[in-house]
Amino acid sequence: MMRALFPLALLAIAIPAVAAAPPAKEKAKEKERDFLAGRVPGKPVRCIDPRSNQGPTVIDDKTILYNVTGRRVYRTGPVGACPSLRPLTTLIVEIRSGQLCQNDMFRVLQPGTTIASAYCRFQPFVPYDRPKAG
Which residues touch 71 (CB under 8 Å, ≥6 apart)? Predict the structure, then answer.
């Protein structure tokens, strides 16, 4: 009888802990809001300079942010589904024109693996700027 109750007791402890943790999508949206807080979206652009940014920050399977300066962040994502795209993954980007452009292809490398995902493509890049003071 005691053996049967022990797993139930563990389950009763684990359920509230899981329920209290914020869902991954909610955490991702919060992280995106933090990056874009106080910034105003501009007109989408087709290309950005890959040398003038600090590299990509993957927020979730639909959102990639490129922090260019303290004032500007570009928001993009994959065209269609890119199932391997998630936080803490590495993007392997194929730049063909010297700029990072809409429809350029990239692959995703999961931590601890050596084989990259299938190809994905970038959407347009939307600049988010901090308003100029004054």
Answer: 129, 130
